[in-house]
Amino acid sequence: MRSLRLSVYPDGAFVVTAPKWYPLYVINKFLQEKSDWLFEKLKNVDFHQLAVKKQSEINCYAAGKEYARSVIADRVEFFNRRYHFSFNRISIKNQKSCWGSCSAKKNLNFSYKVASLPEELCDYIVVHELCHLQELNHGQKFWELVKMTVPNYNELRRKLKNHIK
Ligand SMILES: [Zn+2]
Description:
Helix content: 40-55%
Distance between the termini: 39 Å
Number of helices: 6
Shape: elongated
Strand order of the largest sheet: 3-5-4
Bound molecules: zinc ion
Order of helices and strands: EEHHHEEEHHH
């Protein structure tokens, strides 16, 4: 039993860690034995506070989205005067996985948080995704395109790592 572990996270989620070969019934039994302890732990989770936090994130996105769209669309237009790439649409998303992306269908996606980054970083992300319209990879040709308008892209990529998506 020693290799089974149960963890409760501040948001009330709980995770059982067990070796791969453990039969499910052993894990179920372990959970049953731990149920009192688990309910005791869950009593300490402030679900109201979590709901308030979630709602405030949603409101933040709703308020930030249109502002972000106007800022980003402006920058896309500005930089595309040089590149003349064609694209379908710009989407503003609430995504934590990446700052921006470009699909094979030529849609540009940006996190709404891009608009609140320092200008040089916002511009770098816009240029980066624009260049993917031509080069859907991070090969040498892609970076040559980026370099045309953002010669210090390497420095900006480093700076970007200090910002939370
Ligand atoms: Zn990329």
